[in-house]
Amino acid sequence: MRYQCLALLLFQLVGGTIPTSEHVMKEASAGSFLVNLDQQFGTAGFDWKLITNAKGFELKGADLFTKSEIDREVICRNKKNEPCLINLKLFSLKNQQIYDLRLTIEDLNDHAPVFDEAPIEIFFSEDAQVGQAKMLYSATDEDSDEFGIERYSLQDDSETFTLVEHVNPDDTKVPQLILKRKLDREEKANYELALTAFDKGDRSTTVELFVNVVDVNDNQPRWQGCEGGALSISIKEGLAQGERLPVDVRATDADEGLNGQITYRYSSTTNAEARRVFALDSETGAISIAEQPDFEKVRSHVLYLEAVDQGAEPKIAYCILNVNVLDENDEEPEVQLTPLNAEPGSNSSVLFLKEDFEVGGLVAIVLVTDKDNSGQEVTASIEHSAFELTEFEVGSFQLKLAEPLDYEQSTVIETTISATDGEQSPLTKVYPLKIVVQDVNDNGPRFRLKGNGHFSFSSQYQVKLSEAEEEGYVLLGGYRATDEDSGDNGCIDYELNGKDAALFRTEVQGDCGPVSIVLGQKIDYDELEIDSSGELPKMQLELVAKDRGVPQRSSTTMIFIELIDENDNRPTFGASKYSFEFDETSAEGALIGVVTAEDEDLSPAFSDIEFRFKPELSSGANANVPPNPFRLEPGADKKSARIVLARKVDFENERDNKKWDFVITARNPDSIDADVSEAHVKIALLDINEHIPTVEFKKGRTLRTAANKVYAVVEDQINVTVAKLEVNDEDASTSAEDITLNILPDSSQFFKLQPTRSGKYLLNYIGYHDDGLVLVGIVARDNFNTDPKNETVRFPVYINKSGRKNATEIAAIVDKSADENDLFGADMMYAGVAAVLLVLVIILIVCCCKARCWSKKKQGSQEAYNISKKGGHDYLANSRHGATLDSRNDFEGNWTKPYQHMQSPGQLSYTSGNDSGKGESIPTQNYPGNSYAFPAPPPAVSYGRATEIGDEEWMTDSLLRHNTQQVSEMEEAASDTFVAVPMSKSSSSRLIYSPPSSAQNYQSLSRRANSQRPHFSTFLDEDVRSETSSISVALLNAHTSPHYDSDIASNAGTLNKRNIQYKYPSPQERDEEK
């Protein structure tokens, strides 16, 4: 429909006239508004295009503006006195019609008069007559005659000269200097005047005029063939350079000598264009062609000729020669192409068209003109069949697409437009035209698989990446996606998407070059998350290729990356040092301890750990020492190793190896030595009390031997040494100093033991026994920490007080007593054994009572209780701000009766000691003072002042005494006793207290540094005091109100879940204890 309307319009326009409008404008600067085309032509909403003479103009909608400065003197340089016209041809896209706009440029007075020579110098003969005139150089003005030279004025202070204006046939004015009075060269040889030229506006120019007085030259040159001072001729524009004009204009002078010698020149009035086209011979006056005249440029030239003699006072004759240029068919037609619907970047010789441009569509307007003024029509045609030219007005053609464009077949079409004029000898202009076919984005990128050159829209890549690779490692290099389109449609950009895209980046070689996928940062395999299957999932990337066309097309390929773990982490032990203990009763295969290590590598190949003894430290330092009695058994988790006893050891047989200090290494099975970790292990062998002490009686002057038995004979003497005794014990950790000897009670009234500095004992007889045989009972006891052993021996001593028995008789009696179980001796032995057993039972009962019960003693009107707790797992809460308590069911039968051992006005509740074993939590927040309340009614207790406590693992308290004597003195001197406060396991925890003056000698209790459970002793002996890590003792004061000291409460901690269970004694038990 569109093109039908266009055809109808063209049909109406054929043979019609072009709408024309005229507009008068002044000279204007660039960017000046000139006229609105709709108002000028009476149209509305037309879409205008400039198609000719558009160099100095531009359209903004329907408004016409100057694009550059409009200067009449530049545009119409040779049409000074003619109208200055510019014809603009406009094309309306709305009605597809050409319009003519004729602009008349009016002149402005923007130029001042100009003298070609300045200053001006002329000569007057001294015999010049008054009234003699001298022609002066006239001024010129580039403005039109409207603002041309109006008048001249003269400034002559001497009043010797006056000025008149000579009017030429072309109405130009030439100033003439007139002599007013007689000159006298001897009186004044030169004059300085001022000549001013005024134009018809408000501009003027003044030059200096120098008048020199010379001798007389009284004849003026005369022109031959230029009668009346003017002459006109016509020439063809095709005259060649150097050809003379068909005119003979010469001048003569009647004077002789220099005054009669004539030279020719152009007057200053002759313009530059005429001087450039025509050359004047200064000697002959001949005029020839200097530059080929062009009718199309300048149709008429005016030459102002001067014939000047060479006298002292030159005389000048003037001739005006008008040269008319005749037109010739010497100009080829001109072709001007204006793109209309082409793509941006198109110009008059190159058109850009998309390959989907519609067939029959209007591409451009072609105007054909002929500078020759012949009035003949011109014709135009295009060579390529894909396009056609149709004339819709005289000299105006439409360029249309005649066939479809195909970018894939031809990207560039080069053709010509031929324009021919209608002269008898026609001239043809061949106008080259290039059509660049632009591709449309109808192809998407395709990925080229490496190797076989196959193209695929969607493909997958499987690659492996070691975690050892550094940033910048090229994962995939030189991959390219191709696009059959061109330009931006075929230029491809790449981007990475997917959950792991942040770890990589793309690098493209140049613009639209191959792409490489590069590691953006080093990846640590061990920091990645394992999925629910227990495996590290593959990393995923989406490589997207996008062209730059509109609409944009893209394709995607998936890249799956398998990250390979490297053994880049060495195993690390859970501790740098381990300490273990075992006793000599441990059997082969007994577990000594466990060492653990971790490896941050995730893959099993690098996370399994192999434990070994370091070879150079796997046995003792002494080469004769038996080898390491341990072996390592790997744990099922491959992260630990059990240190197991490889053979049974005996503390006494391995005296040099009671402690082992060695190194265990942890390594991955395939690691190198540099990736091995080490841990130092110390193992101590504990002695067990396996042997009974022995007593040996050494011979002395009182000792005798009968039937291989040693006995002593004591005469009637008192305080005599009967025998020297030596004690021994095969246990390696027990020395003679660790063994004590005591005489049984049945013998202690007659004998006593005296220790010596050498560790031996002397058995001394102290008297009071009648004659007869005495079996002295001696008990040897070792002081081993656990399971002490003792041995009782009977030593025969015969008291021969009266001296009635001789040695033989005494020997017989001793021998007989051994064979017949002498009643005295046997009864004495059995009685002694029974007494010792009774004493031991009483001591044991007393110790148990003191370890498990409360002992009561009167303290005035108050009752105080020494509170001890059952078991090493009982813990005491000492936190004001919160603690967690629970109960356990591991008590003895008579302890399981539930007691309401804690009472609370707040949230604190109670629990029984026979719960499920899992523990019950008892919150103690907001409990005022954390006071403990005991039933019926409880005694008032408090803890002494403390400055620092720990909060790690709590210890068992135990009743402490320094020794029996001090305790006895304490009971008599004060009503205070001490208990150990549960303290932190940390060796840095210390409880500082201030006991009353009566208890100043009490000290802190020490514990073993490396024991898992703190060990407490009833007596603070030398062994306990030698330990290093300390816990402290607090005062249990029976005379103060129950409360926790604020210093203790401020260092609150949360306890491990352990039970606090106290056995509250019944009244009957209290009486029994008393």
C-alpha Rg (nearest Å)? 69 Å
Look at the structure and give the mean pLDDT.
71
Tally the beta strands.
Answer: 65
Number of helices: 13
Beta fraction of the residues?
A: 35-45%
Shape, per Cα inertia axes? elongated
Q: How are the strands of the largest sheet arranged?
A: 52-53-59-58-55
Task: Tell me the distance between the termini.
Answer: 131 Å
What class, by secondary structure content? mainly beta
Total domain modules: 7
Helix content: 10-25%
For the largest beta-sheet, the strand count, sense and barrel status come to: 5 strands, mixed
Spans of 5+ residues with little confidence (pLDDT < 50)? 1-16, 451-458, 618-625, 820-830, 851-1064
Structure overview:
This protein has 13 helices and 65 strands. It is mostly beta strands. It folds into seven domains: 88 residues, Sandwich (Immunoglobulin-like), CATH 2.60.40; 213 residues, Sandwich (Immunoglobulin-like); 97 residues, Immunoglobulin-like; 119 residues, Cadherins (Immunoglobulin-like); 115 residues, Immunoglobulin-like; 151 residues, Cadherins (Immunoglobulin-like, Sandwich); 222 residues, no CATH class. Strands 52-53-59-58-55 form a five-stranded mixed beta sheet. A four-stranded mixed beta sheet has the order 1-7-6-3. A four-stranded mixed beta sheet has the order 9-16-15-12, with no helix packed on it. The radius of gyration is 69 Å and the shape is elongated.
